[in-house]
Design a protein that fits this description.
The protein is α/β, with parallel strands linked by helices and 550 residues long. The protein is 37% helix and 13% strand. The structure holds adenosine-5'-triphosphate (ATP). InterPro entries: DEAD/DEAH_box_helicase_dom (IPR011545), Helicase_ATP-bd (IPR014001), Helicase_C-like (IPR001650), P-loop_NTPase (IPR027417), RNA-helicase_DEAD-box_CS (IPR000629), RNA_helicase_DEAD_Q_motif (IPR014014).
Length: 550
C-alpha cells in the first residue's frame, strides 16, 4: 500500500474548552507534547488504494441462534441493557462465543465462570466488525470486552513484520491504566501469538521504540507518547484496523482530543473503532461522531444516566472544610482498627495529597501517595507497594481515579469531592471490583460542592442508596437556585407549581429498596467501639457491616 499524504492544517483553537476542563489541578501526566501538531501529514483517503482486511469473524453459535426472543428480552431487561443499533444477540456463556483454545484456557485459569454483561453484549458486536460505544459500571469487565476481540482480530490479519505498524491500537488516559491493560492483553495474547507492547510518557523511550520497531500486533498507549512516536516515524498507523478509546470521555475531557483526533485522522477510516467508559457525559457524546462510524452500536448497561456500581455502599458526610481533616483522621483510625482494610483516599490537588500524606505518615499510618508530579518510577513503585499490600493506604489525586483494577480495595475516601460527579463515580469504582465483592465509599461534601449535589443525589438514588437529608437539602436548594437563575428548566415542580423534593422522582422500586436501607451519613453513626464489633466483620454482609447503621 502506498500512502499519498496531503497535509491538512489542524485547528487547535476550537478545542480549547476541553483543554481548560477543571480536572482537579492534576491533569494526570499531561505530556510535554501537549498540543503537538504532527508534521506527518494526514492521508488523503480518497487517493489511496487500501488493502482489504477482515473484521467479521463471528459465527453465531447454534445455542444462541435457538435462544427464544423471550429469553433474550428477559436477559436484556434483567440486566437493564439498552442497545441502540442493530446488534447481534448477546451470548450468555463462554462456550457460546468460540474463542480459540489458548484464550479459553486463560479464561479458565482466571477462574471466570461466565462473561460479564458488557462482555456478553460486546463480544458478538466486536467480533462481527461493528463500531461500538460500551458504557457499563466500574469493575464490570470492560477491558476483556474489548481486548479479547482485539486479539482475535489481530490474529486473523497478516503477520506483522519488523518495521510494520501494529494492527490494534488501544488508547487510555493514564500511564497506570495503560500498563494494566497491557498486562491483560499480554496475558491473553501471548498464547495466541499476538505480541503486545505498552507506550507511555515518563518512562525511557528506547525500549518502547525498540518494541515498536521489532513489530507488534497490539499497542496500548497514552495519547501523548503515541504522538511522539508517530512524529518520529517509529509508530506507523497504516496497518491499524482495530482502534479502542478506553475511558474515552476522560481522555477528551482531559484535553487529549487534539492528540486523539490527529491519531484517528491518520488511521484508515474503514477501521473498527470502539469506545468504553463507565460514564458518558453529554458534553462528549457528540465527539463520538468524529471517531466512530454512523452505524455504530451503543450499549449501556444499567441506568442510561450516570450510574455507580450498586455493590458499593456510598456514604456522604456533609461538613465544613475545617472539619474535614479531623473527621478524616477519625475515619481512617476506624477503618484501620476495624479491618486493616486497603483504602484509597482521593484529594483534589497535589498539594493536598502531599499535606495529607505527611500528616498521616507522622501519625504512623501505613501510607503511600501518588500524583502527577511524582517521577514515573516512583509512581510505579508506589502502585506496586499498594498492590502487594506493603502499605495499605494510598493518598492520590484523580491520577488513580480511572480504570485501576486492584481487587482488595475495601474503602474509598473522598476527602474532597471532585469537580464532576462522573469523577466521583469512577473514584468510588476503585472498590467492589470483582463480581461478588462489595466496598464502601466515604465522601466529605461541603457547601463549595453544592453544584454537584443534584447529580450526586441522583447517583445515590439510582444505586439504591439512601440519601441523607443534609445533602438532599443542598441539592434541592441548588436546583431551586439554578432554576431561578436560568429559567424554569431545572426546577422540579408539580402541576400546582409546588416544588417536589428530589426523592419523589425515583422509580417506585428504588423507593422501596431505599426504605429497607439505613441512612448513609457518618454523622448518624454511633461512637465507634471497635472491640465490641470486630467479629461481625467476618460475616458475609451486604455492603458494610450493619453495625455502622445501628
Ligand atoms: N467474566 C468475568 N468474570 C469474573 N471476573 C471478571 C470477568 N471479566 C473480567 N473480570 C475481572 O473483573 C475485574 C474488573 O475488570 P475491568 O478492570 O476490566 O473493569 P472495568 O469495567 O474496565 O472497570 P473501570 O470502569 O473501573 O475501568 C478485573 O479484575 C477482571 O479480571
Amino acid at each position: 500500500m502506498t500512502l499519498n499524504y496531503n497535509a491538512i492544517p489542524f485547528e487547535m483553537n476550537q478545542y480549547q474548552p476541553y483543554m481548560n476542563s477543571n480536572y482537579g489541578y492534576d491533569h494526570y501526566q499531561r505530556q510535554s507534547n501537549d498540543g503537538i501538531i504532527l508534521t506527518t501529514p494526514k492521508p488523503d483517503w480518497n487517493q489511496l488504494v487500501l488493502s482489504n482486511f477482515e473484521k467479521n469473524f463471528y459465527i453465531e453459535s447454534p445455542i444462541v441462534q435457538h435462544r427464544s426472543m423471550e429469553d433474550i428480552q428477559q436477559f436484556l431487561s434483567n440486566h437493564q441493557i439498552t442497545i441502540d443499533g442493530n446488534a447481534p444477540r448477546p451470548v450468555c456463556n463462554f462456550n457460546e462465543i468460540n474463542f480459540p483454545d489458548p484464550v479459553m484456557e486463560t479464561i479458565i485459569q482466571c477462574g471466570f465462570q461466565k462473561p460479564t454483561v458488557i462482555q456478553s453484549c460486546s463480544w458478538p458486536i466486536l467480533l462481527s466488525g461493528h463500531d461500538l460505544i460500551g458504557i457499563a459500571s466500574t469493575g464490570s469487565g470492560k477491558t476483556l470486552a474489548f481486548i479479547l476481540p482485539a486479539i482475535i482480530h489481530a490474529s486473523h490479519q497478516e503477520f506483522v513484520k519488523p518495521g510494520d505498524g501494529p494492527i490494534v491500537l488501544v488508547m487510555a488516559p493514564t500511564r497506570e491504566l495503560v500498563q494494566q491493560i497491557y498486562t491483560v492483553a499480554h496475558q491473553f495474547g501471548r498464547l495466541a501469538q499476538c505480541r503486545t507492547t505498552v507506550i507511555f510518557g515518563g518512562a525511557a523511550k528506547e525500549p518502547q521504540r525498540n518494541s515498536l520497531l521489532a513489530g507488534v500486533e497490539v499497542v496500548i498507549g497514552t495519547p501523548g507518547r503515541l504522538l511522539d512516536f508517530i512524529e518520529e516515524g517509529v509508530l506507523k498507523l497504516d496497518r491499524i484496523t482495530y482502534l479502542v478509546l478506553d475511558e474515552a470521555d476522560r481522555m477528551l475531557d482531559m484535553g487529549f482530543e487534539p492528540q486523539i483526533r490527529q491519531i484517528c485522522e491518520r488511521i484508515r477510516s474503514d477501521r473498527q473503532t470502539s469506545m468504553f467508559s463507565a460514564t458518558w457525559p453529554k458534553e462528549v457524546r457528540q465527539l463520538a461522531n468524529k471517531f466512530l462510524s454512523t452505524n455504530r452500536i451503543h450499549i449501556t448497561i444499567g441506568n442510561v444516566s450516570l450510574a455507580a456500581n450498586p455493590s458499593i455502599c456510598q456514604i456522604i458526610e456533609v461538613c465544613t472544610e475545617s472539619q474535614k481533616e479531623n473527621r478524616f483522621l477519625q475515619l481512617l483510625r476506624e477503618v484501620m482498627a476495624l479491618r486493616d482494610a486497603k483504602t484509597l483516599v482521593f484529594c483534589q490537588t497535589k498539594k493536598r495529597v502531599d499535606e495529607i500524606y505527611r500528616t498521616t505518615k507522622q501519625l504512623g499510618f501505613p501510607v503511600l501517595c501518588i500524583h502527577g508530579d511524582k517521577q514515573q518510577s516512583q509512581r510505579d513503585f508506589t502502585m506496586g507497594e499498594f498492590r502487594r499490600r506493603r502499605k495499605i493506604i494510598l493518598i492520590a489525586t484523580d491520577v488513580a481515579a480511572r480504570g485501576l483494577d486492584i481487587q482488595d480495595i475495601q474503602f474509598v475516601i473522598n476527602i474532597d469531592f471532585p469537580n464532576q460527579t462522573e469523577d466521583y463515580v469512577h473514584r468510588i469504582g476503585r472498590t467492589a471490583r470483582s463480581t461478588e465483592s462489595v466496598g464502601t465509599s466515604y465522601t466529605f461534601f461541603t457547601s463549595d460542592n453544592a453544584k454537584q449535589a443534584p447529580s450526586l443525589v441522583r447517583v445515590l438514588q439510582e444505586a439504591g442508596q439512601k440519601v441523607n437529608q443534609d445533602l438532599m437539602d443542598i441539592a434541592e436548594d441548588q436546583l431551586y437556585t439554578s432554576g431561578s437563575k436560568h429559567g424554569s428548566k431545572n426546577r422540579i415542580y408539580n402541576n400546582n407549581q409546588q416544588r417536589i423534593p428530589l426523592q419523589q422522582h425515583q422509580q417506585p422500586q428504588q423507593q422501596q429498596q431505599q426504605q429497607q436501607q439505613p441512612t448513609n451519613t457518618l454523622q448518624s453513626y454511633p461512637i465507634y467501639q471497635p472491640v465490641q464489633y470486630i467479629p461481625s466483620f467476618t460475616q458475609p454482609v451486604n455492603y458494610i457491616p450493619s453495625l455502622i447503621y445501628n
